[in-house]
Structures are given as C-alpha cells and as structure tokens.
Specification:
mainly alpha, 2 domains, 3-stranded antiparallel beta sheet, 18 helices
C-alpha cells in the first residue's frame, strides 16, 4: 500500500513553542486551554505531550476557520456566528491527522531530556501504574508513569532559554556555534514540491532489514558485515534509512517511466535512469518518509528485551563524546543471538506483539477509535 507521508506545502503554523508550553503547564497556568495542575505534584510527560499536541491541533483548527472567515469577508458574506465557528473548529479538529502535524513524541522526549540535563525539571518521587503495566499484567520490562515538576532553576530560566534548551546545553558543535552548524546542515538539503500522485512505500520492514544486516547478508545494497563482530544501532539505522531512500527513488523513477509509456514516449535509457535516480535520492526528504530513529530505537530495545540480539562487548567513542561530553554513552556493538536467528519471520515483523501478546492490532485500533471519540468539542475561540 502506498502512503504519502509528506504534508502539503504550508498550512500548519507553530503558534507557540514546546518549551514555553511545558513550563507554563508545570507552573499550573493551564496554557492554551489545557488543565491547571498542582505545580508541586507535577505531571507525567505523556500527559504533558497529549495536552501540548491537543493545544496545537486546536490552534491549527482555529487558524483554518479564521482563513475561512477571511474568505467570507472577501466574498461579501458575514462571518460565522459563535455556534457556527465552534462547529467548524470542531470539524477541523477531528480531521487533523495526528502524525502529520508538528510535534512527534520522539522530539518531545528529546526536548524533555534536555530539560532534565539542564536540571530545569525533576522527579517528584510519585509514580503511577502505566497502561502497559496494566495490559501486560505487570510485565517486568514495562515502566510506571513518573511525575515531574519544575525546579527553581527551571522557574528562573528566561523565555529565550526555554525556547532553545539544546542551544543552552550544547552551545557549540565541535568548533562551530550551534546556530551556524544547523544553518550549514539546512543549506545542504534539497527538497521537491509535492506532486499529485507522489508516494512513499515501505518495501521491507525494519525487522527484516535488521536481521539480514546482522546476518551479514548486506540487504538492499548495504555493506556485508561480519556477523560475529556485529554493529552499533545508529550505524544500522543509517543503512536502513539509506536502503529505504534508494527503494523510494527506484519507485519514483519507475512511476515516471510508467507515465512516459502511457504518453507514448520512450522509457528512460540506462544513463537517464541513473540520472533520475540520483536526482530523486538527493531530494527525498529525510524526515518526511518512514523510519524515525525513535521508532527504530524502540524496535531495537524490543529485540534486546526478547534476547534476539546481544552485546559483543566492543565499545567505541561516540560522536557526542568526541565533542568533549565524556559522560555521554559510547557506541555499543550488537550481534544476533541464537534465539534471534531461530525467531520466525512473523516474530521479526512484529517484535512488540511477541513481547506483549495482549497488544494486538485490534487493541491499537480500539485505542485509536476511543481517542477520536473522546476528543473534546471546542466551544469557540478564546
């Protein structure tokens, strides 16, 4: 099945920053319609993220209705009544794609981790039983919900600091100021405008690739490694991402060839095919197709919990350690265990379901339905 994961050009703004929302939420101010909490009791990161995401969705929906109102004014019509406005906002709110707007949980987790490193937030010591613990009967690898609150240091930090915690934590990347580093990275990227019919496929799963890679089979053009020596997760992820990009580029050129044939044109020559393939490879957006490192990292963690991979004992200095942060974790090499080699194709395809058999596809479908049904109605702007 082809699924376009890149949002249309424009359309979603970011009306407020993640850091400012977290701070005001933990201060008990109830920012942007979120509930007012007890600042001393704190809150769970998953709850903060949910209300941040809901606040963004509401802001996007209101912006869409504001554009409609402007179009009505330009057409000489009256603007929506308060009841009509609320109905239109609710319509957009229920139709906004959960994954295709800003704020992914991985980004939020990283952001919150920087706050912990900066000592702007701290654990309260209180814990709650998580859904995963309840659904799996207290599986030993499931974790509780931990509550966090602001520290004095976090309360005193400025708005500017809260807007850029990474810059506070890592003011320089090597010898380059972090702003210049990211500017240079952005300038090296190439993007294409989304076309009708553009698609991104998933020709193989992370589990299939990971297993074959660690077996030394060199799947999808990746290097053939020594199965006994293994590799580190970031390196495996890089080759998995590159393999997906090559597969997407091949599919895009095949699609172009199909259109040429329909229009009674000759298909690409070998040289033209290679040129078009390279053109697409340079322009496939790194973030807007499948495979985020957070998902891959979780997948890799499931494999460790299942005992399908094992550390080889080899470690190397990681990139972040080389930037004078010696306390950062090193690169650790992993290889397939005997248990992992014996696991079936289906188990590699869905390691989470192997680890937590109660979490079936039907379970997630039901959770999604309940989330959509329980999304609150918006009563109007302001």
């Amino acid at each position: 099945m082809a699924l376009d994961l890149r949002p249309a050009r424009g359309g979603f703004s970011r009306p407020f920053g993640c850091g400012v929302f977290i701070r005001d939420y933990l201060l008990g101010r109830g920012p942007f319609g979120s509930p007012e909490i007890d600042r001393d009791k704190g809150a769970v990161t998953q709850d903060i993220f949910y209300h941040y995401k809901l606040a963004l969705h509401t802001a996007y929906a209101e912006e869409a209705v504001d554009r409609e109102n402007k179009q009505r004014i330009d057409a000489g019509k009256s603007i929506y009544s308060p009841e009509e406005y609320a109905e239109r906002v609710d319509r957009y709110l229920r139709r906004l794609p959960y994954k295709l707007v800003k704020a992914r949980y991985h980004s939020f987790q990283r952001y919150f981790h920087w706050l912990k490193q900066l000592e702007w937030v701290e654990k309260t010591g209180e814990e709650e039983r998580s859904t995963l613990q309840e659904e799996t009967g207290g599986h030993p690898d499931s974790h509780p919900r931990r509550l966090y609150r602001l520290t004095r240091k976090g309360i005193e930090a400025s708005d500017e600091d809260w807007s850029h915690p990474q810059r506070m934590l890592y003011p320089q990347i090597g010898d380059m100021p972090i702003e210049d580093y990211f500017k240079e990275k952005r300038q090296g990227r190439k993007y294409i405008r989304q076309r009708k019919g553009m698609r991104f496929l998933r020709p193989f799963t992370a589990g299939q690739f990971l297993r074959d890679y660690l077996l030394g089979l060199g799947p999808e053009g990746s290097p053939s490694i020594d199965p006994g020596e293994g590799d580190y997760s970031e390196h495996i992820f890089y080759y998995y991402k590159e393999a997906l990009r090559r597969a997407y580029a091949r599919d895009a050129v095949a699609w172009e060839n199909e259109l040429r044939i329909r229009n009674n044109q000759d298909s690409y020559t070998q040289d033209e095919y290679a040129e078009r393939l390279e053109w697409h490879l340079e322009r496939i957006p790194y973030k807007f197709h499948r495979a985020r490192f957070h998902s891959f990292y979780r997948y890799f963690h499931y494999l460790k919990q299942l005992g399908w991979i094992e550390p080889t004992g080899r470690e190397e200095e990681s990139y972040i350690q080389s930037l004078a942060y010696a306390d950062a974790p090193p690169r650790r090499y992993y290889r397939l265990s005997t248990k992992g080699k014996e696991a079936t194709e289906w188990e590699w395809y869905r390691p989470q379901l192997t680890l937590y058999p109660n979490l079936t596809p039907q379970y997630f479908a039901q959770m999604n339905r309940e989330r959509r049904q329980n999304m609150p109605l918006t009563t109007g702007k302001g």
